[in-house]
Design goal:
Layout (H helix, E strand, L loop, with lengths): L2 H26 L3 E2 L5 H6 L3 E7 L4 H20 L6 E7 L4 H6 L4 E2 L1 E6 L2 E2 L10 H11 L4 E4 L2 H4 L8 E6 L5 H12 L5 E6 L12 E5 L10 E2 L7 H12 L3 E4 L4 H6 L4 E6 L4 H14 L8 E6 L4 H6 L9 E5 L4 E3 L11 H11 L1 H8 L9 E2 L5 E2 L25 E2 L5
Parallel strand pairs: 1-3, 2-3, 7-9, 8-9, 12-14, 13-14
Antiparallel strand pairs: 2-5, 4-19, 5-6, 8-10, 10-11, 13-15, 15-16, 17-18
Helix pairs in contact: 3-5, 7-8
Length: 414
């Protein structure tokens, strides 16, 4: 064999080695590199898509990268069937269009897409292999809990929001659409179903889907779906309005997510057993602040668990219930919760935040109630500055926003 032949043989060996390496990496790397060219096609081919939006220079992204790939490999061994899931990664510096499309403001950001719909909640749990695997395993579970007796429906925990379906068959288009909706909304509502003979008494006129609000018994305040039962998008849109109400409860588990939305909080602090005040507050918010959903987050909080903000307001558990605004700069206390039911009082409290009145009174004292007006350099006006000003404390909930010890923040969210 002459030199030229040996050289060609060596080149062929190198090519085979390179192809083998590339093939091995594509199989073993776990997560798939996504770009604008392949993103939509690959997402459409998978039921559950777990996305890692990262930047190579971000140290948190560097730490997560091997963990994310290892979790993908582990899931692959547990669920070998193709099409059920995809671990995808997006280099945000290289794929700026995808980064903008998903409003990425910090690295790394982990998002979930189910049946083509982006989950409103990001993954904010532990960044360990076991935690990521457990999260995806949960997403791949059946999102519908099946009952065999109607009596079980009547025992559904009244603390949860529930959607209950009664179907002729699990193989029907109607049930399949219901199941898709359940996957998309599993974080907000619990979905239950009775099938066949178990649902016969409730299906006199065909399949039934009903929403049962929290803090009620099934049948008391049900809302029935009257749309197209085999259209999962229509069911999801209907259920979304009910499962994601205007008033939400803030907990230590969802505080970071709610804070990152960037809207001021209007919070009812209440005793956990005081259901009546929660109902009254929710009704008032619905009546007076329905058009302000994009301007303020209306929340309830367990006053026992969230005792720290109460102390900042100079209050204790004995003062529950009470209402406050956290603007992420200061906290402002609603003067007297007894006036909550007076028409327009809560609405005015929120309007005073946006007009600057709450902040202005913090600096200059209460605004005048007569013709005696003092003008200030910023253009605002109030009574004589010697009046007694309010002294709202600094925000406490801003401290629950995404931390620079966990993310590389691209901008100040609040």
């Amino acid at each position: 064999m002459n030199f030229t032949e040996r050289l060609k043989q060596s080149e062929n060996s190198i090519r085979v080695l390179l192809v083998s390496c590339l093939f091995f990496n594509s199989i073993s790397a776990g997560s798939v590199q996504l770009t604008s060219d392949n993103f939509d096609k690959l997402v459409a081919q998978h039921e559950v898509v777990f996305l890692n939006f990262y930047a190579d220079w971000c140290r948190f992204s560097q730490i997560l990268a091997p963990v994310f790939d290892e979790a993908a490999d582990k899931i692959k061994t547990l669920f070998p069937n193709e099409g059920r899931y995809l671990f995808g990664k997006v280099d945000c510096d290289d794929q700026t269009a995808l980064s903008s499309r998903f409003h990425i403001s910090k690295y790394p950001t982990l998002k979930l897409i189910t049946n083509g719909q982006v989950a409103k909640k990001e993954y904010r749990g532990q960044r360990s292999v076991d935690a990521l695997v457990e999260f995806i395993q949960e997403q791949l579970k059946d999102p519908v809990k099946e009952f065999t007796l109607f009596a079980e429906v009547e025992k559904i925990d009244d603390k949860t929001r529930a959607v209950v379906g009664f179907f002729e068959s699990k193989e029907s288009l109607q049930y399949n659409a219901f199941r898709k909706s359940a996957k998309n909304l599993r974080d907000y509502c619990v979905f239950y179903a009775l099938i066949g003979e178990a649902a016969q008494n409730q299906r006199a006129n065909g399949d039934v889907i009903a929403f049962r609000p929290s803090r009620t018994k099934y049948g008391d305040s049900n809302v029935h779906f009257n749309g197209t039962f085999h259209d999962s998008v229509e069911i999801t849109n209907w259920a979304t309005e009910l499962c994601m109400p205007l008033v939400r409860e803030i907990t230590f588990e969802n505080a970071e997510e709610l804070t990152e939305e960037g809207l001021p909080f209007l919070i009812l602090f209440h005793h956990p057993d005081d259901d009546e005040i929660v109902k009254k507050y929710s009704q008032i918010v619905k009546e007076e602040l329905g058009n302000d959903k994009g301007n303020i987050n209306c929340l309830t909080a367990d006053g026992i668990q969230f005792s720290h903000p109460l102390h900042h307001l100079g209050k204790t558990q004995k003062d529950l219930p009470l209402i406050a605004i956290d603007s992420f700069r200061h906290m402002y206390l609603f003067p007297d919760i007894k006036h909550m039911t007076e028409p327009g009082k809560v609405k005015q409290f929120v309007d005073d935040l946006y007009s600057g009145k709450l902040h202005r009174e913090f600096h200059y004292g209460p605004d005048p109630v007569d013709n005696e007006v003092a003008h200030h350099p910023d253009g605002s006006s109030s009574q004589d500055p010697s009046g007694q000003p309010t002294t709202p404390p600094e925000s406490t909930f801003k401290k629950l926003a995404p931390s620079s010890s966990r993310y590389t923040l691209l901008r100040d969210e609040l």
